[in-house]
Specification:
Elements (H helix, E strand, L loop, with lengths): L4 H25 L8 H16 L6 H23 L23
Helix pairs in contact: 1-2, 1-3, 2-3
Length: about 100
């Protein structure tokens, strides 16, 4: 068992370009009615479109976008478990849901 250096490098490349890309799409993702996960959804959509139209063949850029989708889905999952989704269409004036502050188990 070892670390796949290609996949690790692709994940690092995604991490290096995430902040700049996120800042570029922030004016658009801030308008999405997705609460605290608008940025993550925007990054997933950007990754999907980039893979489809810009990086059609295998390579480090495509691997970085694949890693990015996994990273963004993990961030959404973390927000869901911690109660930080804050989606407007899920909280329709009802009682507030308790925020999870401890461990699950």
């Amino acid at each position: 068992m070892g670390i796949n250096l290609g996949k690790a490098g692709a994940a690092m490349l995604y991490g290096a370009m995430r902040a700049k890309t996120s800042n570029l799409i922030a004016p658009y993702t801030s308008k999405l009615p997705l609460g605290n996960i608008g940025d993550e959804v925007g990054m997933i959509i950007t990754s999907m479109l980039s893979k489809k139209y810009l990086f059609k063949k295998a390579g480090i850029a495509r691997d970085a976008l694949n890693a990015g989708q996994t990273i963004e889905l993990a961030r959404i999952g973390d927000a869901a478990v911690s109660g930080e989704l804050n989606l407007p269409f899920l909280n329709m004036g009802g009682a507030a849901t308790p925020k999870v502050t401890g461990t699950i188990f």
